[in-house]
Amino acid sequence: MTGRPAAYRRRPTDVVPLAVWALSVALVSASVVLNQADPAAARGVPGFGQAAWWWAVAVMALQAGALARWGDHPRAALLAVAAGVPALFVLGDAIGSGLLVVMVAAYRAVLARPARRLLPSLLGAAVLVALGVTASVVRTGAEGWIVLIGGPLQALAAVGLPAVLGSVLASRRDALDALAATAQAQHRERDALVQVAVERERTAMARELHDIAAHHLSGIAVMTGAIGRQIDVDPEGAKVAVAQVREQSTAMLRDLRNLVVLLRDVDTPPEPGGQVRMETLAGIDDLVARAEESGARVALEKVGPVAQVAASGAVGPLAQLAAYRVVQEALANAARHAPGAPCEVRLDAGEEGRVEVVVRNSRPDPGEVPGHHDPGYGLVGMHERAELTGASLRYGRTLDGGWQVTLSVPTAAGPSTSEGQDR
Question: Can you give the residue ranges of the Histidine kinase/HSP90-like ATPase domain (predicted)?
């Protein structure tokens, strides 16, 4: 409505009062005609051209003007319109024609605000209507109970009935508004949930891509560095290293295809006869073996029934994936920041209620200088995996200048914490 012309927006305020005034005058005119035909049918009605006639027409015009002028102030408009009713007592039995504008004002007032807030105004308007109607009844010469109940009944009809109707319609409007607001809130909530889900999926995809690429590319970087030194002095060794680079590249492509298949949520294997591999605690053996094949010095130690705990389901698939990725990222970090340093991977299931995964590397050899690397998201990914699975993550420098990452995976639901130093 705000974009429509101002003249159009004023139509309900200007046209309705004018129409009510015209209808009221028409009803009074009909009463005059009826009185002229049968004086007993409409008593006390002034004739056309008499002073009382023009007085009534003028008062009804003022009532319509007040309804139009104070449309934004419904209580004031209702009281102003009702105040004109006592002045219409000169109409006698035709005073009901002047109550039409009161009915419209009462209806508008209740629509604009709850009826309970308008109670004083409604009561005041009813009293004014009752006084005016009583005065008109007395003017017609009526006596007895008609004088006593005529005014209150007319007031109830002119003020009470429109108020009830307006309350019903206002309640229905408020209910529809509440339903619309609820629908909008639910729509916004759904949008927010969708956005959160999308962000979580993006974070998960970024974490998986980082872990897969960082592990394999770190091994490739180490092997290509060795190839550069071997190609002249040890051609056969360089050929072996090239084969290992090819194997690492193929493994990375395979892992990326597996990830894409999981993201697409389809059951078709990435290769004919193949199977999507889910990284678990048992897969850490193969992870360490591939790191050794790439030239890294990595040792694996198992304490307690690690295989039995992994196979029994005491550690869920997501938690086992988190442990696998933490070992993968820790070995990749060791290759980048401490090339040539020996690493130790320890899986400890000796303590009941948790499996502890420890990856520790010594300080780099004196002849090995780690290359410059921009800050990555490896530790961020470890934090996220720990929080997601209820695990506890700790990391930091060791006393000999190395680095240690410890992930404690509970076999039952437990709080997740992570602490350490930036690397």
Answer: 322-411
